[in-house]
Write a structure and sequence with these properties.
By secondary structure, this protein is mainly α. Helices cover 77% and strands 0% of the residues. The chain is built from 13 helices and no strands.
């Protein structure tokens, strides 16, 4: 089960990476005055690249749902960190640019660190459902954190800080989406399609995912990939891990296993911070342009 869960998680990472590249192509054409408004949505809905990106992400979400049905949140969500090297490989292919040696080294670092951390942590176990009180606390905490990030981002001019804040809010939203999706797929598995369509978690994960997608579009419009992607990649993985433990009671190994887990986490973080700086689509030249940010 864990093997198939990991396979579907990898397919989801590839799909998300493809969708991210297509959405970034569309986000570059958004006029600055349309950020965080209904006009942004109208502009993107007329973009074939953005619509194509959404379609791919919907397919990735189906793979993610299957992965969450077969495995734990603590296993599936960290594997989505691989979305970042996949994003750069796909972006480089579209731009007809090779991934530099530093990019390959950072990609190996991410993959090796992730493998080491997951092998040491051996995430699993946990309960299938959560109490209404725990759900209320989870929704309040995640929505509050997202709101704080957005409120901190809005007064800022376009630039790295604004992009990182919107991306952090999006990361929390995607982690919440996965947490709700796992509950909804559990309902489908236990009680069938009718119960799935009437479960509040089904509509909640769709709403959370749509909100996270909107925030990600604003992150991409606000600044360069080097600012938005690390916050999204690391934030989603860390928040998902925390929610898996808190909401579902999933377990990871402690004791001396914390040493290889820590080494793996450092390798992943290091690689994730390096990868967005790899210029595969002229991002470096755009990032060097003035952004009016102090």
């Amino acid at each position: 089960m864990a093997l198939f869960s990991a396979l579907f998680a990898l397919l989801a990472a590839v799909g998300n990476a493809t969708g991210t590249v297509l959405q970034r192509v569309a986000a570059r054409t958004v006029p600055p005055g349309d950020a965080f408004s209904v006009r942004l949505v109208r502009h993107l809905l007329r973009s074939p690249a953005w619509l194509g990106g959404v379609a791919v992400i919907v397919g990735a979400a189906a793979c993610q749902a299957l992965a969450l049905t077969l495995g734990s949140l603590s296993l599936v969500q960290p594997l989505l960190v691989l979305e970042l090297p996949f994003t750069l490989l796909i972006a480089g292919a579209l731009a007809r640019r090779r991934l530099p040696a530093a990019g390959w080294a950072a990609s190996v670092m991410v993959a090796a660190g992730l493998g080491l951390a997951l092998a040491a942590a051996a995430p699993g176990g946990g309960r299938a459902t959560a109490s209404p009180g725990l759900w209320a606390l989870t929704l309040f905490a995640t929505a509050g954190a997202m709101a704080l990030c957005v409120l901190a981002a809005l007064p800022r001019p376009r630039g790295r800080a604004r992009a990182a804040l919107f991306s952090s809010a999006s990361a929390i939203g995607y982690a919440l989406t996965a947490t709700l999706m796992k509950s909804a797929t559990g309902v489908f598995e236990r009680d069938g399609a009718g119960a799935f369509l009437t479960a509040w978690q089904t509509y909640a994960f769709v709403a959370a995912g749509a909100c996270a997608l909107f925030l990600l579009a604003n992150a991409m419009e606000s600044g360069p990939l080097v600012a938005s992607q690390p916050a999204l990649t690391l934030g989603e993985g860390l928040v998902s891990l925390a929610l898996g433990i808190l909401v579902y009671g999933e377990r990871v190994r402690a004791g001396w296993w914390l040493v290889p887990e820590g080494v793996g986490a450092v390798l992943v973080t290091w690689g994730v911070l390096i990868l967005p700086r790899v210029d595969v689509e002229g991002e470096g030249e755009r990032a060097a342009q003035p952004t009016n940010e102090p």
